[in-house]
Amino acid sequence: MGNTSTSLGDANRFPKIILCVAASDAHVVGNHMIAMFLRDNGLQVINLGAATPIEEIMDAYQRNPDVLAIVIGSMNGHAVDDLAGLGNAKRDYQVRCPIFVGGNLSVGSQKNNHEVDKLLNDGVSEIVSDPEHLLSMLQKLAKTPTIFA
Questions:
Q1: Is there a contact between 8 and 67 (Cβ–Cβ < 8 Å)?
Q2: Distances in whole angstroms, Cα of residue 41 to Cα of each of 4, 17, 34, 93, 124
């Protein structure tokens, strides 16, 4: 996970993201690695850490409405349960940035699109497959003018 040739933002104002791990998940190693990777690539990372309930994510958004995105990881496979109600919270808190989710989204070795569909239907903007995919999405957002309310 080294630097990429494309950096985000300029020297005076780097884009910010909120990063966290879903509510029932205490896996912090991947979270810290993603945070370091994103910082190395020019982002300010507001890292809420592990076991972050939706309400804490929304409170962080209220304190930082200018974030480029909210990034939520899940390693234990309970993302669907942990993020139930995300769509309502997005509406109630008037979240205007995308919410990306990545990691292990379901329990067991057999994977299907059921979990992905549920997450997308409940407020997740996109499922990201790896750190480079996430960085690419954030780079695209950083180049797109956004109006924050």
A1: no
A2: 7, 12, 11, 29, 23
Q: Which residues contact 6 (CB under 8 A, 6 or more apart)?
A: 41, 139
What amino acid occupies position 81?
A: D
What tokens appear for 142 in the block?
Answer: 């950083």
Looking from the CA of 30 toward its CB, the CA atoms found within 13 Å total 18
Residue 47 and residue 102: Cα distance in Å, rounded? Answer: 15
* Cβ atoms 36, 2 nearer than 8 A: no
Q: Exposed/middle/buried for 23, CB within 10 Å: 0-12, 13-18, 19+? A: buried
- In this structure, what token pair is assigned to residue 14? 């780097």
Which helix (H) or strand (E) element contains residue 140? helix 131-142
Phi, then psi, of 3 in degrees rounded to 5: -65, 150
Tell me how far apart the alpha carbons of residues 120 and 110 are, in angstroms, rounded to a whole number: 20
| Residue spans of alpha helices (H) in 24-130 | 29-40, 54-63, 79-82, 86-92, 114-121
Q: pLDDT tens digits for 105-140?
A: 877 756 678 889 999 999 999 999 899 999 999 999
* 3 state DSSP class of 81: helix
pTM: 0.87
